[in-house]
C-alpha cells in the first residue's frame, strides 16, 4: 500500500524537482537534439538598418564545402505567409506584411536575407560569406518623434505612415476639468531605454519531418508551444494536426520566447523542401539583433494634485517604439501598461494615449513586466517629484493617496477592479526591515557635511495586473487568444499521478508547484506526482507561460482537475464501501465512512480498482482521470513596497546599492523558496534597467551594444544582498488565493533605484537622471546641475 501524506504541501519550501536534472547537465536543450541526417541552417542578416534588396545570389554559397542548399528570400517566399501579430489593438491599426525572410527590403540590421543549409553548423556559417547581396541604402528611421513628421522617411512605404496606431483611454472625470481645480500640476518626460532580453539559453529550433505521413516535429526553445503550433501551421500551411511542437528544457525567456519567430517558420519550410531534419541555433550576438527587444518608450506624464497632496488626475502620452515589424503581441505591450499608471492610488480622472511608431530597429515585444514596469516607473518617479514639490515625505504622499485595505475590492480609475490588497501592511513591514528613519537621519548628516558620497533613499509602492487573464477582457482589448488554461490528471493504476499542464515552464518551477497542489488535493505523496508539459502531443491543450499567469490560471486548473479526480474516486469508494457518498470523509488521500474509520479505501486503491474495473458503480467509466479548463474572472494584483538605499559618489558618478528591501504580497504562496527566487531574479532585472542595460544604436541604425561585452548584464557580484519580506493578502479570484510573482520584482525595482539616486543628488540640484544611470550619466547630471544648465 502507498503511503499517504499528512502534511500540507502548499506553503512548503520544497527544493525544485526539476533542478537535479538541470544542474547536472542531464538536460534536453533544443541544441542538444541530434538525429540522423541532421542539417544545419545559418542565416545571412542585413548589415543595414534600411535598404532595398536589389539582388541576392546564393549560388556561390551552394559551391562551398558541406553546403546542401541555399535560399534567398524570394526562393522561400512562396508558400510562406506573414508572421502573425495576434494583438491588433485598434481597428485601424497599420499591419505591415512581415515575411519570415526579407524579399525586397530590409528594415532593421539583422533582418534575415538568405539561408544556407549545410552538413554542419560551421560549414553553414562559413558559406554565408559567399552569398552575394546588392543593397541600395534607404534612410533609417530612429527617432520616435521625427518618425511622425509629415515628411519622415517611411519604414513601410506602402503604408504611407510610421504611425502604427493611436490607442486612447479616458476614464473617470474629464481630465481637463479636474486639472483646473488642481493646486499643483507637474509634467515630466521619462525615457524607457530599449532592453535586450538575455535568456541563458539562446533560441534554437529543430524540425524533423516524417515523409511517409507528412508529419513534422518542431522542437523549439519557446515559451509557447501551443500557440506556436497553431501559428506555424497558419504561416507555413502544414496542417495543424500534422505538426507536433515540443518545448524541451527551455533555459529562460523573460518574454523573448513568447514569440513566433521567422527562424521557426524558415526551419520548417526548409525541412519541408529538403525532406531532411534541420537545426538552427542562434549565437548570442545574433540573438541581440534577431530576438525581439523590450521597452523602448517615451513617456510624457502629467499629474494634478491639491496642496495637501491629494491626487486629482493623471495624463499620460506615450510614444512606443514598435521596431520594424509587429511581432506576436508588440502593439499590446504598452496597452498592458495603460491600466497601471494610476497604480495603487485613488484619483478622479485619467487620460492616456499611446501612439505606436515604426522604426528601423529590431522589433520590440514582451520583456519581463511588459508595459507594467514602464507604467510603474513613470508614476513612482513623478510621485517622488510631487512629494518634493509639496514638501512631503515620499511615503507620506503615497499613504495619503493609496487605496486602503478596507476599501477592497476597489475599482481603480483606469477601470480595473483590484480584488484585494493591503498596501499599509506591506509598506510598514518594508520600512521596519529597512530602518527608514535611521537612514534618513544619516542622509541628512551627510548632506549637512557636504560629503562626497551621498546617500539616497528610493521607494516604490506598486501593484500590477497579471495572471493573464479573463478571456472576455482580452477579447475587448482585441487580443487574439483566450486567457484560459488546461490541466488534466491521470491517476495511474499503481497510484502514481501524472499532471498534464498547458503551461510551459522555462525556469519557474511548475513541476514542483503543480506537484504540491496536486499532492494536497489528492492526498498522495509529492514524490509520486510527475508533471508533463511543453509537448503538444502529451499536453494537447494550453495557453502557455507568460504574463505571470501560470499559477493563478494553470495552477488553478490543476487544483480543479484534482478535485474532479477526488469526486470520481468518491463514487467508486462509496460503491466499494457500500456507503453513501455523503457519508464518506476524505482526508490525506483516504476515504472512510463517517463513524467507522476502519471502513476505508485509499485513493491509490481506488485507482487500481478502477483500472481493473471489476466492481464499478453502474454506468461509471473505468477511470478517475479528469480534466479541467479554467477561465479566470479577473486578473491577479500582487503588490508591495520596495525600498532602496544608494550611495552615490559625486566625484565619479558611481552608484552603489547599499541596501535593498522588498516586501511583496503575492497572496497565498505555493512554494516560498520559488517565490523568493522569482523576486530575486525580478529585482535583479529591474536594477539592471536602472543602472546598467541599454540597447544603443548609432545614427545609421546599427546596434552598437551588440555583444555581452557592450551590453552590461549584471552578475550576482554587481548586485546587493536583497532583504525580502512578505505579507499575504489572499486573492479572491482563485481558489488558491494566489497572485502572480514572475514579474513583480522587475516592475517594482527600477523606480526604487532611480528614485534613490535622484534623492541622493537632489541637494546638488539634480532632478532627473536618465536610465541607465551609468557613472557617466550621473556625473553629467551633477555637472549640469552645478553649471545651472
Ligand atoms: N508561485 C508561488 N506562489 C505564488 C506565486 C507564484 O509559489 N503566490 C510560483 C509558481 O508556482 C511558479 C512561479 O512562482 O512556479 C512563477 O509563477 P507565476 O507568477 O505564475 O509566473 P509564470 O509561471 O507564469 O512565469 C512567467 C513569469 C514571467 S511573465 C517572466 S517574464 C519570467 C518569470 O516568470 N521569466 C522567467 N520568471 C522567470 N524565471 C525564470 N527562471 N526564467 C524566466 O525566463
Describe this structure in words.
The chain folds into 3 domains: 19-26 and 484-630, Aldehyde Oxidoreductase, domain 4; 33-138 and 198-290, Aldehyde oxidase/xanthine dehydrogenase, a/b hammerhead (Aldehyde Oxidoreductase, domain 3); 404-409 and 418-466 and 636-789, Aldehyde oxidase/xanthine dehydrogenase, molybdopterin binding domain (Aldehyde Oxidoreductase, domain 4, 2-Layer Sandwich). Helices cover 29% and strands 24% of the residues. By secondary structure, it is of the alpha+beta class. The strands form 7 sheets. Strands 3-5-1-12-9-10-11 form a 7-stranded mixed β-sheet. The protein is built from 20 helices and 28 strands. Bound molecules: pterin cytosine dinucleotide.
In the predicted model, the low-confidence regions spanning at least 5 consecutive residues are: none
Task: Compute the CA-based radius of gyration.
Answer: 28 Å
- Give the number of helices: 20
Largest sheet: 7 strands, mixed
Strand adjacency order, main sheet: 3-5-1-12-9-10-11
Protein name: Carbon-monoxide dehydrogenase large subunit
InterPro entries: Ald_Oxase/Xan_DH_a/b, Ald_Oxase/Xan_DH_a/b_sf, Ald_Oxase/xanthine_DH-like, AldOxase/xan_DH_MoCoBD1, AldOxase/xan_DH_MoCoBD2, AldOxase/xan_DH_Mopterin-bd_sf
Domain Aldehyde oxidase/xanthine dehydrogenase a/b hammerhead: 24-139
Pfam families: Ald_Xan_dh_C, MoCoBD_1, MoCoBD_2
Amino acid at each position: 500500500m502507498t503511503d499517504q501524506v499528512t502534511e500540507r504541501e502548499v506553503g512548503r519550501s520544497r527544493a525544485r524537482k526539476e533542478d537535479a536534472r538541470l544542474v547536472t547537465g542531464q538536460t534536453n536543450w533544443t541544441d542538444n537534439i541530434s538525429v540522423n541526417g541532421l542539417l544545419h541552417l545559418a542565416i545571412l542578416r542585413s548589415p543595414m538598418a534600411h535598404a532595398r534588396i536589389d539582388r541576392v545570389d546564393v549560388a556561390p554559397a551552394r559551391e562551398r564545402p558541406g553546403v546542401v542548399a541555399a535560399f534567398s528570400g524570394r526562393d522561400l517566399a512562396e508558400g510562406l505567409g506573414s508572421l502573425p501579430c495576434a494583438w491588433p489593438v485598434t481597428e485601424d491599426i497599420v499591419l505591415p506584411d512581415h515575411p519570415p525572410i526579407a524579399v525586397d527590403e530590409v528594415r532593421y540590421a539583422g533582418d534575415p536575407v538568405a539561408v544556407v543549409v549545410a552538413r554542419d553548423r560551421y560549414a553553414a556559417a562559413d558559406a554565408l560569406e559567399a552569398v552575394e547581396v546588392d543593397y541600395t541604402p534607404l534612410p533609417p528611421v530612429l527617432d520616435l518623434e521625427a518618425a511622425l513628421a509629415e515628411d519622415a522617411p517611411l519604414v513601410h512605404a506602402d503604408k504611407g505612415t510610421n504611425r502604427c496606431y493611436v490607442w486612447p483611454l479616458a476614464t473617470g472625470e474629464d481630465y481637463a476639468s479636474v486639472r483646473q481645480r488642481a493646486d499643483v500640476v507637474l509634467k515630466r518626460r521619462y525615457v524607457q531605454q530599449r532592453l535586450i532580453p538575455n535568456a541563458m539559453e539562446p533560441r534554437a529550433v529543430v524540425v524533423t519531418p516524417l515523409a511517409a505521413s507528412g508529419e513534422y516535429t518542431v522542437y523549439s526553445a519557446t515559451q509557447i508551444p501551443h500557440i506556436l503550433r497553431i501559428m506555424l501551421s497558419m504561416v507555413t500551411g502544414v496542417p495543424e494536426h500534422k505538426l507536433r511542437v515540443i518545448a524541451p528544457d527551455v533555459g529562460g525567456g523573460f518574454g523573448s520566447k513568447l514569440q513566433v519567430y521567422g527562424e521557426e517558420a524558415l526551419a520548417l519550410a526548409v525541412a519541408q523542401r529538403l525532406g531532411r531534419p534541420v537545426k538552427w541555433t542562434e549565437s548570442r550576438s545574433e540573438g541581440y539583433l534577431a530576438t525581439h527587444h523590450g521597452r523602448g518608450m517615451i513617456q510624457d506624464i502629467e499629474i494634478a494634485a491639491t496642496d495637501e497632496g491629494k491626487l486629482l488626475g493623471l495624463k499620460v502620452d506615450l510614444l512606443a517604439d514598435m521596431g520594424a515589424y509587429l511581432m506576436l503581441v508588440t502593439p499590446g505591450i504598452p496597452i498592458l501598461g495603460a491600466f497601471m499608471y494610476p497604480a495603487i492610488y485613488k484619483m478622479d480622472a485619467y487620460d492616456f494615449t499611446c501612439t505606436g511608431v515604426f522604426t528601423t530597429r529590431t522589433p520590440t515585444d514582451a520583456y519581463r513586466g511588459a508595459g507594467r514596469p514602464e507604467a510603474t516607473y513613470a508614476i513612482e518617479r513623478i510621485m517622488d517629484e510631487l512629494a518634493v514639490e509639496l514638501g512631503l515625505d515620499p511615503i507620506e504622499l503615497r499613504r495619503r493617496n493609496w487605496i486602503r485595505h478596507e476599501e477592497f475590492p476597489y475599482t481603480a480609475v483606469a477601470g480595473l477592479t483590484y480584488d484585494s490588497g493591503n498596501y499599509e501592511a506591506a509598506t510598514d513591514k518594508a520600512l521596519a526591515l529597512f530602518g527608514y528613519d535611521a537612514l534618513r537621519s544619516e542622509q541628512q548628516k551627510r548632506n549637512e557635511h557636504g560629503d562626497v558620497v551621498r546617500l539616497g533613499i528610493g521607494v516604490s509602492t506598486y501593484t500590477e495586473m497579471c495572471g493573464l487573464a479573463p478571456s472576455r477582457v482580452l477579447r475587448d482589448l482585441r487580443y487574439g487568444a483566450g486567457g484560459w488554461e488546461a490541466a488534466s490528471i491521470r491517476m495511474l493504476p499503481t497510484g502514481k499521478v501524472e499532471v498534464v499542464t498547458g503551461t510551459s515552464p522555462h525556469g519557474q518551477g511548475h513541476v514542483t508547484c503543480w506537484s504540491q497542489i496536486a499532492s494536497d488535493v489528492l492526498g498522495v505523496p509529492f514524490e509520486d506526482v510527475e508533471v508533463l508539459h511543453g509537448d503538444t502531443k502529451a499536453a494537447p491543450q494550453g495557453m502557455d507561460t507568460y504574463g505571470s499567469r501560470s499559477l493563478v490560471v494553470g495552477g488553478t486548473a490543476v487544483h480543479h482537475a484534482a478535485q474532479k479526480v477526488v469526486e470520481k474516486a468518491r463514487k467508486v469508494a462509496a460503491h466499494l464501501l457500500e456507503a453513501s457518498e455523503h457519508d464518506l470523509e476524505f482526508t490525506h488521500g483516504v476515504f472512510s465512512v463517517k463513524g467507522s474509520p476502519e471502513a476505508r479505501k485509499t485513493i491509490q486503491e481506488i485507482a487500481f480498482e478502477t483500472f481493473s474495473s471489476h466492481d464499478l458503480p453502474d454506468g461509471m467509466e473505468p477511470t478517475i482521470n479528469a480534466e479541467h479548463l479554467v477561465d479566470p474572472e479577473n486578473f491577479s494584483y500582487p503588490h508591495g513596497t520596495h525600498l532602496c538605499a544608494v550611495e552615490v559618489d559625486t566625484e565619479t558618478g558611481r552608484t552603489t546599492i547599499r541596501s535593498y528591501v522588498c516586501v511583496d504580497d503575492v497572496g497565498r504562496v505555493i512554494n516560498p523558496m520559488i517565490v523568493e527566487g522569482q523576486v530575486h531574479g525580478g529585482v535583479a532585472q529591474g536594477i539592471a534597467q536602472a543602472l546598467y542595460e541599454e540597447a544603443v544604436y548609432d545614427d545609421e541604425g546599427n546596434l552598437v551594444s551588440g555583444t555581452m561585452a557592450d551590453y552590461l548584464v549584471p552578475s550576482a557580484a554587481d548586485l546587493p544582498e536583497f532583504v525580502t519580506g512578505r505579507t499575504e493578502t489572499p486573492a479572491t479570484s482563485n481558489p488558491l488565493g494566489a497572485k502572480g510573482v514572475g514579474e513583480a520584482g522587475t516592475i517594482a525595482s527600477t523606480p526604487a533605484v532611480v528614485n534613490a539616486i535622484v534623492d541622493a543628488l537632489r541637494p546638488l540640484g539634480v532632478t532627473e537622471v536618465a536610465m541607465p544611470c551609468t557613472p557617466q550619466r550621473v556625473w553629467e547630471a551633477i555637472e549640469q546641475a552645478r553649471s545651472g544648465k
